[in-house]
Amino acid sequence: MSRHQPAFKATQVFDWASEPSDERPTDFGRSTGYSVLSGYGTLGETPTARRRHHERSNGFAKLLVSCFLILSISVVGMLVMVRFLQA
Fold first, then answer.
1. Can you give the pLDDT at residue 75?
2. DSSP notation for 33-52
3. How many domains does the chain have?
4. Cα(12)–Cα(16) distance, integer angstroms
5. Are 8 and 2 in contact (CB under 8 A)?
6. Is 72 a domain residue?
7. Contact, 21 vs 14, CB < 8 A?
8. What is the pLDDT of residues 48-63, one digit of tens each?
């Protein structure tokens, strides 16, 4: 019942030269705006990725500063309370 069929018909196989240029992956990515997501032609880091990384480090620095401020205010408050209770 099963007979050996070729994987593709001769009319369905395209090489790079005969494939329509607007259907090529790199051109498709540039024309639709999904070039960053497609992975074609994006070997370097994109500006949006650099900006996100910079924002992420700014967020971490803000978190550390706020934790330090809260901790230092708590310690000062505890010291004032201890002196008040000892009197």
1. 98
2. T-HHHH-TT--S--HHHHHH
3. 1
4. 13
5. no
6. yes
7. no
8. 666 666 667 788 889 9
Answer for the pair 12, 3: CB distance below 8 angstroms, yes or no: no
Higher pLDDT: 22 or 70? It is 70
What's the pTM value of the predicted model, to 2 decimals? 0.38
Strands (E), the chain: none
Average pLDDT across the chain, whole number: 72
The answer to whether residue 27 sits within a structural domain is yes
Q: For residue 80, give its domain range.
A: 21-86
Structure confidence at residue 16 (pLDDT)? 63
33-39-43-46 Cα dihedral, nearest 10 degrees: 40
Whether residue 13 is contained in a domain is answered as no
Q: How far is residue 32's CA from residue 28's CA, in Å, rounded to a whole number? A: 6
Q: What is the DSSP letter of 17?
A: T
Structural domain contains residue 58: yes
